[in-house]
Specification:
3 strands, 3 helices, about 60% helix, three-stranded antiparallel beta sheet, about 15% strand, about 110 residues, binds zinc ion, alpha+beta
Length: about 110
């Protein structure tokens, strides 16, 4: 093997090595991204398990109550009332005045 061939061979290995290193870097970054996504999903699930149906004020359990298709979550301790998105609008926009009064009495437990 002469100097020219040796130099071409070195260049080939160098280029090949560069491609392998680049592929390894991309694969490593892909695994890292997958782990971050998995971790994020696990964290969201952990938070959900920790806080789902718990009162944001006192931390006690929330219990779902239903009346005429309106659902509220009421704290079993402090009696705080929580609405899902859209439920409050439904109560005020779609019900008649007497139905609203009935719902208000139900919410106030009177
Ligand atoms: Zn509470």
């Amino acid at each position: 093997m002469d100097e020219f061939d040796k130099s071409r061979e070195d260049a080939w290995f160098k280029e090949n090595e560069k491609q392998l290193l680049e592929a390894a870097k991309l694969a490593r970054e892909k695994r890292e991204k997958e782990r971050a996504q998995k971790e994020k999903a696990e964290e969201l699930e952990r938070l959900k398990q920790l806080h789902h149906m718990k009162c944001p004020k006192c931390g006690h359990d929330l219990k779902t109550e239903d009346r005429d298709g309106i659902e509220v979550d009421r704290c079993t301790f402090c009696e705080g009332i929580f609405f899902d998105a859209g439920e409050l609008e439904e109560m005020f926009l779609k019900k008649s005045a007497s139905e609203r009064r009935g719902i208000a009495r139900w919410l106030l437990k009177i």
